[in-house]
Amino acid sequence: MSEQGTSADWRSSAAHVMAVSVLFAVPMLKLGWTLGGGSAAREALDAMGPANWLDVVTGMFLFEPLLATVLAVVASRAVYAYLAAKGGADAHQNVPMPAVAAAAAIVPAALAVVVGIFNGLGWGVVCGVLAYLVRLGVLVDYRTGRRHTATGKRTGRTAESVVERAADAVWIAGLALGLLVLPVLAITAALDGRSWSSVVRCDVNTGTGPERARMIELERQASGVVGWDINKSEVANGTNCAADDDVIRAPWWRS
């Protein structure tokens, strides 16, 4: 394999690792910055439990339209490239191109539906189109012999046709989204001072009688919520809750 192909594969792998790292680390950054870090973040995480940690991920990535779209596009390409490298490309080498291209559209369509439901039709369409284009770029690489069907590694052969150059442009765009755009958007969302969950005003009774308190909802119960009391910096039970603004503190760049 040429040095150019090896370098290209390293950059693609780095983009995939970056996406996984963002999904794991940035929600913790969101929790720490929003609550003030330290013991506050640990206490809130203990109250949420490991299963509800996904609420932070969902709140961050699903309801931020641009971030949700970029993450969906990066994930779409990463999954397709991985499956192709693990035998998918080799198994479909003799399948007609239109059939393979149609099959490649299934996951982007599903991602478009999810993003569109939570963020609007426009974002859903953008997500679906971009997620499909990055998959087509991978498909073109295999069909033009610029990736080894057995290993998924790039051969390093220079693009010659318009289609191959277009596939290169899509590949570069995919790298930029995974290595640059996704982490920047994710960190920005983590440090924007907004809650990842619903913010409510509830009646809280800590032994001195009920009083209204502003809380971040950590878990919903039949009689109310378990939430983070923003003013007292502690976990509390709240009842008779009403929705409130989701801004908890100033964003990092204004603090």
Radius of gyration over alpha carbons? 22 Å
H-E order? HHHHHHHHEEEE
- The percentage of residues in β strands lies in 5-15%
Helix content: 55-70%
User: Which class of secondary structure composition applies to the elements?
Assistant: alpha+beta
The gist of it:
By secondary structure, the protein is an alpha+beta fold.
Which helices and strands appear, and what pairs or packs with what?
Layout: H1 3-35, H2 38-52, H3 54-61, H4 65-91, H5 97-104, H6 106-119, H7 121-143, H8 162-190, E1 199-205, E2 210-221, E3 224-229, E4 234-243
Q: How would you characterize the overall build of this protein?
A:
With 255 residues, this protein is an alpha+beta fold. The protein is built from eight helices and four strands. It has a four-stranded antiparallel barrel. Strand 2 and strand 3 form a beta hairpin. It is elongated.
Throw out a few tags for this protein.
14% strand; single chain; alpha+beta; 255 residues
